[in-house]
Lecithin retinol acyltransferase
Amino acid sequence: MLQLLTFLVEKLALLYKFKLFVPSYPDQEPERERHAHRERIQPPLRRGDLLEVPRTLFTHFGIYLGDNKVAHLIPDILLALTNDEKLISSVITNKRLVLGCMYKCATVRVDTLENFAYGSKILVNRMDKVMKKNHVFPNEEVAKRAEKLMGAIQYSLLWNNCEHFVTYCRYGSAVSRQTEKLLTFFFVASKKEEEEDSKYDLSLYKRGDLLEVPRTLFTHFGIYLGDNRVAHLIPDILPVISKNKSAISKMVTNNRLLLGVIAKAASVRVDNVVDFAYGSEILINHMDNICSQPPLDGEEVARRAEKLLGSVSYSLLWYNCEHYVMYCRYGMAISYQTYQFCTTVRKIFCSRMCSYLTALCGVGIMLYLGCVTPMTVLPTVLISFTIWMAA
């Protein structure tokens, strides 16, 4: 379908009357107005400066090369549709940019300062304050790195955008603060109020205690390590898609948790009591009344919990947070939630009523199709008999 769409757009692009990708920025601006525009947007610039301009939904970045030229990475759909260099070299419009993002097609190209700014105010080397821990290359080295990367390039909104390009050129590290903010918005919880700390009395917890908190559909478990720290196994998608340790270390939100369950990615991590409880009531050593196995010494429980810290493979049924704490405290990795779930499923699908309904449906299908043969009767009998025996 995408190839067909690309083919149709390519053919349309060959027509001169095709106006979708013609830049709206005037090519023949009066010289006086162009000079005034340049004076308005151009601060004193040096070759190798990192430039940024605010756009509607994002900030665009480039490297100044001198002589009113800026190198920048920008999505452009025309690279996939035509070889017309004159058309490609024109100012990239918003339509071309958006479709380039969708098609993951981009280029590192050189534009004039006015075309790069696209009418916005230019900020110079503001990123130096944000990236203060990184070494800044000499300006000439920055410009040479930018020029070396000229040409078509695969684009990724999150992993290879214009900000990755300029931070690699100037600091040697391809990072994007905009990407980090986007991930933070979706996957990192906002900081809780400090007053919530008073909701939990830490004097009630001892090192090695098994803590559990009820959630919407399940119960979450952890091991108290002392000093307001709880070790717990929790699904988390963020370590799979980001290496930002600061974002990963923050409280795991429901979005991160659910996507982690789907991806079967989890980690045994340490959080404070407030983040672990997530606003719920905490039960202490409630499993001692359910498990027939006597608990291990509290110090041994805590040591076991700390030994397993780090990334683990997750399974909703066979290795979840309850398996983790049960192993730490009782020496056996079991989950009563899993057992209850499997028991409930068995009662629903492995019952005499289900057997009757299966047989009835099989007979109904055979009568409807008018095809009563050994090949249709045998599956109906076998399935119904299997469910009957499992009931």
User: Anything to note?
Assistant: The chain has three domains: 2-175, 207-341, 350-390. The domain at 207-341 is CATH 3.90.1720.10 (endopeptidase fold (from Nostoc punctiforme)).
